[in-house]
Automatic annotation (TrEMBL):
Lineage: Bacteria, Bacillati, Actinomycetota, Actinomycetes, Micrococcales
Binding site for ATP: G148, T149, N150, G151, K152, T153, T154
InterPro entries: Folylpolyglutamate_synth_CS, Mur-like_cat_sf, Mur_ligase_C, Mur_ligase_C_dom_sf, Mur_ligase_cen, MurD
A molecular function GO annotation: tetrahydrofolylpolyglutamate synthase activity
Keyword Amino-acid biosynthesis tagged: no
A Pfam match: MurD-like_N
Protein name: UDP-N-acetylmuramoylalanine--D-glutamate ligase
EC nos: 6.3.2.9
Function: Cell wall formation. Catalyzes the addition of glutamate to the nucleotide precursor UDP-N-acetylmuramoyl-L-alanine (UMA).
Family: Belongs to the MurCDEF family.
Keywords noted in UniProt: ATP-binding, Cell cycle, Cell division, Cell shape, Cell wall biogenesis/degradation, Cytoplasm, Ligase, Nucleotide-binding, Peptidoglycan synthesis
Length: 517
């Protein structure tokens, strides 16, 4: 790619609110949400001397305990319960001057809409952390930021490990669970922050200034939250703005390259691609089963630097994991990490639960739990890794469509079993684009023509639905088959979380193995 547009941007929203010595004291602030990031925001603002009101729609035991803690550190008022969600509260009788919002709060929610209509700045906890910077006397960290539809947590986890193996003090934070505010308030400080950013967080972030930024991939997701795919894309694209050294994009997905080309970056910033194929100049990629770097070395026009081998991943090296590793390696190399640190991180990596997780192998059949595949793009990454698949799928579709996914993976499918209270959209796509593949389930919950088995798959009892799905899969198995539970949908119609759905699958497979033995 050619030269990127150069940015000299500074914050336009309350530009004076930068640094620990900025005029935070007495600032009237509303924090929406008392989750992990909301608690950190309220705690930090109180420490800075701001007058803070916290609003949260739930009123559970943990929220009340957190509220008691915040009162002890000086938070003015905590409003718990749905009755407080209709109107933006006053702060000690006066209008708020700033709102810091948690990722779950949609732009069309009443409080956010009212704040914006009144000209009150709405910031994310992430931007608050960037504006503050490290605690006085602590190290100033390099910000390495990651977003994408899928693979964010894997990438920042790998990135953290690469940096630590390089001898840097680093932490994975952001949407991964540790608030960025907690990281920047560390008394010692960090050499680098590996920051996972969701589209929700980026929606409320005006401007960061990272050393390096990456968009892993982009596919239709969270359309119901953002209002359109265009708005979702725009939120993700914010991550590249004002990047200092390297904008890292997926060379196998043109849209991410386009996002880099459109970004205003700092002078000297480079566009760095990653690909699971052979890399071009200024890219990272794969050559002869080796992960190589043709971006962060002086003689990149004629040489490639070996970073790791596919064998370093162990018995399974799924394409999406290799891609995420290359993205993490690009970020780590931008931060000065040595190749040896990258290989060590790959060799030590253990995939998290519920992400292409082997749970059993018997009679030459592999059972895989990928409950974390909550959208079509994530499910496609799993399905590409296997052939002869018995696919367990379905759940809440979140406004996405399945046609593109089914068109791609139809040749791999031998049977599909649909759970979920309404997987009719997925079933319809299968009937159109994979007409030769047998499909069980997917009818509406109130469809009176369903069999008892199909009613079980569509019922609200998720554990029963999963046991039924596993039992149906077991009826059609043959050697070399893979039973893959990759739902391509959210879980909340039948389960408390994707983790609960994954555990239900693991337990159902374990029961099946016990019965067969």
């Amino acid at each position: 790619m050619g030269d990127l547009p150069v940015s000299d941007r500074q914050p336009q929203i309350r530009p004076e609110l930068r640094g620990w010595d900025a005029p935070w004291s007495g600032l009237r602030a509303v924090v929406t949400g008392l989750g992990v990031s909301g608690f950190a925001a309220a705690d930090t603002l109180a420490e800075l001397g701001a007058r803070v009101v916290v609003v949260d729609g739930s009123d559970g035991r943990k929220k009340r305990r957190d509220a008691d803690t915040l009162r002890l550190v000086g938070v003015s008022e905590i409003l718990l319960g749905e009755e407080h969600l209709a109107e933006l509260p006053l702060v000690e009788g006066e209008p708020a001057e700033i709102v810091v919002t948690s990722p779950g709060w949609r732009p069309d929610s009443a409080l956010i809409h009212q704040a914006r209509a009144a000209g009150i700045p709405v910031l994310s906890e992430v931007e608050l952390a960037w504006r503050l910077g490290p605690r006085p006397g602590a190290k100033t960290p390099k910000w390495l930021v990651v977003t994408g539809t899928n693979g964010k947590t894997t990438t920042v986890t790998l990135l953290e490990s690469m940096l630590i193996h390089d001898g840097q003090r680093a932490i994975a934070c952001g949407n991964i669970g540790v608030p960025v505010l907690d990281a920047i308030r560390d008394p010692e400080g960090y050499d680098a922050l590996a920051v996972e950013l969701s589209s929700f967080q980026l929606e409320y972030t005006e401007l960061l200034s990272p050393l390096a930024s990456a968009v892993l991939n982009l596919a239709e997701d969270h359309v119901d939250w953002h209002g359109s795919f265009a708005e979702y894309r725009a939120a993700k694209a914010k991550i590249y703005e004002n990047t200092e050294l390297a904008c890292i994009y997926n060379a196998d997905q043109q849209v991410t390259e386009d996002m880099v080309a459109e970004a205003d970056v700092q002078e000297g910033c480079r566009a760095i691609g990653f690909t699971t194929g052979a890399p071009g100049l200024s890219m990272l990629g794969v050559v002869d089963d080796l992960l190589v770097d043709r971006a962060f070395l002086d003689n990149r026009a004629h040489q490639a630097l070996e970073l790791a081998g596919l064998e370093d991943f162990g018995p399974l090296a799924p394409q999406h994991l290799v891609a995420n590793t290359l993205a993490a390696a690009a970020l780590a190399r931008a931060a000065g990490a040595a190749p040896e640190a990258i290989r060590a991180a790959v060799q030590g990596y253990e995939a998290g639960d519920h992400r292409i997780q082997p749970v059993a192998k018997a009679d030459d059949v592999l059972w895989i739990n990928d409950s974390k595949a909550t959208n079509p793009h994530a499910a496609a990454a799993s399905l590409r890794s296997f052939t002869d698949v018995i696919w367990i799928a379905g759940g809440l579709p979140k406004g996405v469509v399945y046609d593109e996914l089914i068109q791609e993976i139809a040749p791999r499918l031998r049977q599909v079993i649909l759970i979920g209270t309404d997987s009719s959209q997925l079933r319809s796509s299968l009937e159109r684009h994979a007409p030769g593949v047998p499909v069980i389930g997917g009818q509406l919950r109130d469809d009176e023509s369903r069999s008892e088995m199909e009613a079980s798959l569509a019922g609200e009892d998720g554990v029963r639905a999963m046991r039924t799905a596993v039992a149906e899969a077991a009826k059609v198995l043959a050697p070399h088959h893979t039973v893959l539970m990759a739902p391509a949908a959210a879980s909340m119609d039948q389960f408390a979380s994707y983790a609960a759905r994954g555990e239900a699958f693991i337990e159902a497979v374990a029961e099946l193995m016990t019965d067969r033995s």
